[in-house]
Amino acid sequence: MSRATVCLTVDFDGVSSWIHSFGEADSPTNLSRGLFGVDTGAPRLLDLFDEHDIETTWFVPGHTIESFPDAVESVWTAGHDIQHHGWSHTRPGTYPDEASERADIKRGIEAIESLTGRRPTGYRSPSWDFSENTLSLLEAFDFEWDSSQMGTEFHPYPLRKGWQAPPDAPFERGEASAIVEVPVSWQRDDFPAFAFNRQRGFADEPAVFDMWQSQFEWMYRNVDNGVYVLTMHPQIMGYSHRVELLDSLIETIAEYPEVEFTTVDAVSEGV
Ligand SMILES: [Zn+2]
User: Fold this and answer.
1) Which residue of 21, 80, 182, 208 is surrounded by the most CB atoms within 10 Å?
2) What domains can be seen in the chain, in order of their start residue?
């Protein structure tokens, strides 16, 4: 058994996040940032993963699958796992009702089935949050795991349902659901770290990669059977200088004894 597990995960939003999450369907420049991810970023990441012989998990909206079938086919034929990330990349909390969220999840499942020939087992919420209906919908569609929440740092755990957060009474955690959470962190996501923001300016990028390395090293030293999930987006991580920094991060982590790079689905099966 490995001492530490690393899941490299890629949210392949294409242009869906610009259209459905950020309301930028009329901005050719922002759409072109998504197109950069499809045409340039994704192939660079695939090449890098191939060089390191690593199997990764790609969360792909149905919108990306239907808009850019060849690009997503390349991910699948390269041997990576493809899991659910909504059809439209709509933030779950913004659906007007349960039926429209249900329809979007169903359409996303169908898009993945038509590409891979099998049903997705895992879900990652667009925007990393749930509506009040998301968890019961995941159970109803027989998903096995989710990777959007942050209740632990390095260990999978069951998501709870029926929790309550009333304004005038204590918080209730609720009961364990059938869905295993393989937790993410905003601290290990390239989008908040690097996506251009006019107010903030540029991040110290090597410092962010150093932070990701220190997080892995802390886990390796202190946590039994820890699972380290790193999230990236082809339109962010696919830039030349970042691909190089990612290359060295992978190389450094891979030098540690008994480290396994694997898919989130494989991790969830061991829970
Ligand atoms: Zn996304």
Assistant:
1) 182
2) 4-269 (3.20.20.370)
Query: Quick one: pLDDT at residue 137?
Result: 98
Say if CB 73 and CB 115 are below 8 A apart.
Answer: yes
Which residue(s) pair with 226 in the sheet? 4
Rounding to the nearest 10 degrees, give the CA dihedral for residues 206, 210, 212, 215: -170
Instruction: Tell me the CA–centroid distance for residue 45 and ligand 1, in Å.
Output: 16
3-state secondary structure of 6: strand
What residues does the ion ligand 1 have nearby, CB within 5 Å?
Answer: 11, 13, 126
197, 1 in Cβ contact below 8 A? no
Task: Provide the pLDDT for residue 199.
Answer: 81
Full 3-state SS string of 68-114: CHHHHHHHHHCCCEEEECCCCCCCHHHCCCHHHHHHHHHHHHHHHHH
What residue ranges of the chain have pLDDT lower than 70?
1
pLDDT the model gives residue 1 = 53
- Ligand 1 centroid–CA 255 distance in Å is 30
User: How many A from CA of 104 to the centre of ligand 1?
Assistant: 14
